[in-house]
Amino acid sequence: MREITIEIDSNEEIWRYIDEKLNHIYISNFRPKSSFSWWKTDLKISESQTFENISVRNMSLDLQVDLTTLRKLIELNTQSLIIYQFDKPIPDTLLVAELMEQSKENILFQNGLKHSFFINFEFLTVKSFDENFIEDLQKNKR
C-alpha cells in the first residue's frame, strides 16, 4: 500500500481527494460529537427497538454509507475521521477494529478495499492499493 500525507485547510478540501468512482464507504469509530458532554437523542437499536429521548455521550460507531452521506459527514468538520473506500459492499462480519495489525491490510484488500483516508486535524493521510491514484495525488494535489 502506498501513502501520501497532505496538509489541508478545511474538511471541505478533503472531498477533492475522495475517489468518486467508489460508492462503498466504511467509516471506522465515528464520533458524532467530539465533546464529552451529554446530549439527548433517540437511539434505534433494531427495526423494532428504539430508545427515545435518552442521554448519551462519547458515542462511537462504525458507519456504512454512500458518497452522498460521506460528503455530509465530511462537512461536519470532525477533527478525526477514518474513511475506507471499497469497490464492493462491506461484509457484515468485517470488523476493522478487531483485525490484527500484521494481517489488516491483506484482509481489507481481500474484501475490496481500494483507498483509506485518515483525517487528523489539518493533515490527511491517504493510503491506496492503486499506485496511480497516489501518483495522481502527488502530481496534482487534485
What does this structure look like?
With 142 residues, the protein is α+β, with helices and mostly antiparallel strands. The strands form 2 sheets. Strands 1-8-7-6-2-5 form a 6-stranded antiparallel β-sheet. Strands 3-4 form a two-stranded antiparallel ribbon. The protein has 3 helices and 8 strands; from the N terminus they run E-E-E-E-E-H-E-H-E-E-H. Strand 7 and strand 8 (123-128) form a beta hairpin.
Mean pLDDT over all positions: 90
Q: Which spans of ≥5 residues are poorly predicted at pLDDT below 50? A: none
Strand order of the largest sheet: 1-8-7-6-2-5
Number of strands: 8
Shape: globular
Return the structural class.
Answer: alpha+beta
The N- and C-terminal alpha carbons lie at a distance of 20 Å
Please report the number of helical segments.
3
Give the helix proportion (percent range): 10-25%
- Rounded to an integer in angstroms, the radius of gyration calculated over CA atoms is 16 Å
Largest sheet: 6 strands, antiparallel
Order of helices and strands: EEEEEHEHEEH
% residues in beta strands: 35-45%
Keywords, separated by commas or semicolons:
single chain; 142 residues; alpha+beta; six-stranded antiparallel β-sheet; two-stranded antiparallel sheet; 3 helices; 37% strand; globular
Describe the structure concisely for a colleague.
It contains three helices and eight strands; from the N terminus they run E-E-E-E-E-H-E-H-E-E-H.
